[in-house]
Amino acid sequence: MKRWTAWQNWVAVAAGLYTVLAMTWTTEVGQSAAYMLTGGIALIVIGVINLAAPGMPAAEWVQLVVAALVVASPWMGSFASGTPMVAWHTWIPGIVALVASAMAIKPTMRMYHEHHPVGSH
Length: 121
Description:
- It is a single chain.
- By secondary structure, the chain is mainly α.
- It has helices spanning about 5-20, 30-50, 55-75, 85-115.
- It has one domain (about 5-25, about 35-115).
- α3 runs antiparallel to α4.
- The longest helix has about 30 residues, at about 85-115.
- The two termini are about 25 Å apart.
- It holds the Pfam family SPW.
- Keywords: Membrane, Transmembrane, Transmembrane helix.
- This is SPW repeat-containing integral membrane domain-containing protein.
């Protein structure tokens, strides 16, 4: 995998950007703005890290965990039931990033093992 070419990480960055921008057209419910901003920025940052330095399985797993936290954030921030539209603007990009992140793990593991064979130390 070359730098800046993994489509899965571009999807995670786009999902993070959408989550942050969705705050501009949704009404804040409870702590929704804080969770959307934090989760969106975290997805953007880890996605860019994975794009800039491919082949780091740990970073891909971090991206997967961040995406899962974005999906869970409407429940953690208590805005899942108050206004479901706000939650949907978090759930959908979170699920998209979660699926894309899961799809990135196997190629990253393969690339890592090609460049770091067992017993090469």
